[in-house]
Amino acid sequence: MNALRAIDRWWFAVMPPERLAALRVIVGGFAWIYLCVRGAHLTSYAEFPARNFAPLGVTSWLEAPLAPAAVYIIYALTLLAGAAFVAGAHFRLSGPAFAAGFLWVTTYRNSWGMIFHTDNLVALHLLVLALSPAAAAWSYDARGREPAPAHGRFGWAVRALCCLTIASYVLAGVAKLRNAGWAWSEGDVLRGHVAYDALRKLELGSVHSPAGAWLVQYEWPFQVLGILTLVLELGAPLALVHRQLRTAWVLGVWGFHVGVIALMAITFAYPVTGCAFASFFAVEQLVAHPRVRRLVRKISPALDLGR
Amino acid sequence: MNGGRLVAYGWGLTLVLCSIWPAFRTPTVDSYPLSTYPMFSQRRGQPWLHRMLALDDSGAPFPLAPKLIANAETLQAAVTVRRAVDGGKGAMKDLCSEVAARVSRDPELSKVRRLQIQAVQYDPIEYFVSGRVPMAARTLQTCRVRR
């Protein structure tokens, strides 16, 4: 009983509404910019031949690809909903609409035989925020209202975002143990992946990482990287229980993703930009920074950043 | 339990539990957005690479840009070729003809005469240590670029 109460207290940790609002802007803003930047790519699937269609997740009920016009319309509506999501406008509608739209657009992208793993966490984070009170502050919906006091109802979504981030890394670690056992930590498997990735890109006429291609000559760096990777992935839950470990873990995982760019030329933009880890910190305090305040006022002069 | 708590547990906690669920599935099946995150987890060994090559008048081969095969994503292009290979002669012929039609419309590729779908086997480490020589190579499909 005491354990359940402790979990309940942890899940409903008292937090200011501004933290959830900041996460709405950071996560929603990332997702919206991502959709804009990758627009040509995400809509390119409209023209793919039906024989390559391999639906999964929310598209698995489709028996055939959508008509090209439907792909473009869904993409455009998702962008519209995304702008409202970030602004916190009509959030009861725009929240679920943007989360569902992002999930659909990215699932459709993954429905052609290749599952990319770069968007999973963004999609899950948006789903959490969609049904949370993330527009209770710093939003169009909350304009002219007195700021709500800190409360447990603003805490659960932040906790859920953190748990989802942690879970994704633990799962990646578990997959390595399931598929290769503890031998994964010896570095051979990782070395083979870095080499194969560079080889494939060279042979297929794409951009590869010269650093990775050079480093695969040596065994020892991969022994170190193999152990570090498993420690970061399987040790991720520690970031939930200790403040200093949390900061160390976030820096470690961020460094890991920078390493993936350096060795494999693969960018996981959500963690590399830091957006994936925003929920671990008091991000609402960012607005206290004069530069951020000036930027926000410039973008939206009417927005009341309050305290 | 009020509505807010119901959403907090019914939605927030359920999403967290669902995200962990793939780790307990047997056999492991990757999906989206609920994933097992299997990238970089399996031994690569000496894999076969499936690719499309363009050949000019002299027969000199060079790799085709991914956007001519699928889209700008290299991995998507690689998977498209692999799926055609898995689909057999008919699927390879279809892919080859579609790409040939795109190549014929591209003025920068006016010297390309033929396309080939190839399977090539490499040892990824040896590729960078000893030289870029394939262990084995097979041509699976050839088609002409008509102009």
Report what the structure shows.
The complex is a heterodimer of chains A (307) and B (147). With 307 residues, chain A is mainly α. Helices cover 60% and strands 0% of the residues of chain A. Chain A contains 13 helices and no strands. Chain A has helices at 2-11, 17-37, 39-44, 68-87, 91-109, 120-130, 156-180, 188-203, 210-215, 220-234, 243-264, 269-272, 290-299. The model of chain A has no long low-confidence stretch (mean pLDDT 93). Chain B has 147 residues and is of the alpha+beta class. Helix content of chain B is 39%, strand content 21%. Chain B is built from five helices and four strands; from the N terminus they run αββαααβαβ. Chain B has helices at residues 3-20, 66-69, 74-87, 89-104, 124-129, and strands spanning 48-56, 61-63, 112-121, 136-144. In chain B, β1 and β2 (61-63) form a beta hairpin. In chain B, α3 crosses α4 (89-104). The model of chain B has no long low-confidence stretch (mean pLDDT 92).
Largest interface: A-B, 71 and 64 residues
User: Strands of the biggest beta sheet of chain B: in what spatial order?
Assistant: 2-1-3-4
Averaged pLDDT of chain A: 93
User: Uncertain regions of chain A: pLDDT < 50 for 5+ in a row?
Assistant: none
**Shape estimate of chain A:** globular
